[in-house]
């Protein structure tokens, strides 16, 4: 690192070879050939820590994450933990979308899913990408064990603290995510393509159409110290980015004097409700938006019954108790693909050719 020039910003690459079918593995091999192999890490082999440790004394570097939203969140979480040990505390992050939803990659113009783009072109796109800031949120899950055993032993479950980049949902959308997650865990070999994954997701949704829960009766919502009454909904979602459920615009684009236009760096979360599976399907088809409920920077939820929740696509059942969402400190730096590069990528897919950037050597 002492030999690096002031204008040099090397690239640290994390690849999840289990994402995107075999495409993740192919990218891992390709980047190891194009770059110094010490810059390219298989994230399933020990996580992001090894790569960040290798780059800990590099004064300036960028990160490329090849994987789904969960993989990106994994890198962001570990980076948050070890940031104080890095000379470059806020390396900006680019994405090659290998997951099913890829909502964060979509809003940063990296696309809905990797479709075999030349790795040379990916490196050129990262080189020319623009830096943007994005909010990140801390969620305190202060769930209390109110079982009889818990009461007898005066036992309270310790609070769990997690970080959120994209969205946090309770109710029906989390329930679908949980069912999909369990199905994938049972037969992981069948979940190797985005097309198949979405088909399973639709099937799970159809099975839930006759089932409903009155989520508004099980939750109390407070936004920036104000009590907010909930309409008759089955799902409640807190959005940090304007893409949800594989690219759907849940908040909607219609102007509304009650709310500010959503941004990824405005220190505000959008609070939206859905009435059920049919409503979710309409949102994902672009026919409707969700029900706008509130905007705010501090959320407090009181949950009276166990409820399915999902955080950036990772689902679980949350016991009764309190949930608090607040800003997670400094904004994170992301890389957004330039519009020119986005147009060139589309042209390449349509059959045009483009020579690799002469600036690839700077990586």
Percentage of residues in strands: 25-35%
Number of helices: 10
Gross geometry: globular
How many beta strands in the DSSP annotation?
18
Instruction: Give helix and strand order, one letter per element, not per position.
Output: EHEHEHEHHEEHEEHHEEEEHEEEEEEH
**Which strand order do you get reading across the main beta sheet?**
7-6-17-14-9-10
Assign the structural class, choosing from mainly alpha, mainly beta, alpha/beta, alpha+beta, or little secondary structure. alpha+beta
End-to-end distance = 13 Å
Protein name: Diacylglycerol kinase
Keywords: ATP-binding, Kinase, Membrane, Metal-binding, Nucleotide-binding, Transferase, Zinc, Zinc-finger
Subcellular location: Membrane
Family: Belongs to the eukaryotic diacylglycerol kinase family.
Q: What does the model show?
A:
This protein has 363 residues and is of the alpha+beta class. The protein is 28% helix and 26% strand. α7 (172-186) crosses α8 (194-207). The chain is globular and about 60 Å long. Residues 352-362 have low confidence and may be disordered.
Brief overview:
The chain has 363 residues and is α+β, with helices and mostly antiparallel strands. It is built from ten helices and 18 strands. It has helices spanning 23-34, 49-54, 69-82, 103-107, 119-128, 148-152, 172-186, 194-207, 277-284, 339-349; strands at 11-15, 40-42, 62-67, 93-97, 130-134, 137-143, 160-164, 167-171, 219-223, 226-228, 235-239, 269-274, 291-296, 298-303, 307-311, 314-318, 321-327, 332-336.
